[in-house]
Amino acid sequence: xxxxxxxxxxxxxxxxxxxxxxxxxxxxxxxxxxxxxxxxxxxxxxxxxxxxxxxxxxxxxxxxxxxxxxxxxxxxxxxxxxxxxxxxxxxxxxxxxxxxxxxxxxxxxxxxxxxxxxxxxxxxxxxxxxxxxxxxxxxxxxxxxxxxxxxxxxxxxxxxxxxxxxxxxxxxxxxxxxxxxxxxxxxxxxxxxxxxxxxxxxxxxxxxxxxxxxxxxxxxxxxxxxxxxxxxxxxxxxxxxxxxxxx
Length: 247
Description:
Blueprint: H1 2-26, H2 35-43, H3 47-51, H4 58-85, H5 90-108, H6 132-145, H7 147-162, H8 167-190, H9 192-202, H10 206-226, H11 228-239
Helix pairs in contact: 1-7, 1-8, 1-10, 1-11, 4-6, 4-7, 4-8, 5-7, 5-10, 7-8, 7-10, 8-9
Main location: membrane
Protein name: Cytochrome C biogenesis protein CcdA
Subcellular location: Membrane
């Protein structure tokens, strides 16, 4: 019973990390600047047409988020299945994942450079803008191909999913990450004029956001490497006994 309770409690900090990683992914230097052009392309009008209300970007943005969420959920299921296959080596898997996540964080902090993460493997959606299907396919392509921006964050969440045990919880972590990335995208489509103004104010701070993301990756990597997540889960159970009823 304690194992189930511990897994439930450990999911909370992991879910918080996944949500924060999704938001920071949206704010990353090579995602935030392309949001208005992406919205304009998917809607079939220029950025000026979006700002004037010529056509709404909400439905295309929704299908774009559904597309990238589809890929993330499949990744979550695959990572969870991989973790369950090697359940007897879970501690070793967590430590290995911790080392990888720390290296990804150091890449973001510019302490070291990983050449693979400096190359983009984008997939051409082969769809014209202005259709829901085109937006969905573009979301699939974005999730598969935008490795320099979302690859390290995804690697961190996939590591958490692989070391989390239960298939459902691993998949849920990727769903939460997709929400963190997708909800700001949808809000940008709904409030396009305010969003563009806010993005212009955020742009001078993109390097700081990138370093915050790197710091988060290093912290999570250390937690995986040292076993701090289970320790924190025990503390949660002792401090908030009602968590034992979750799951």
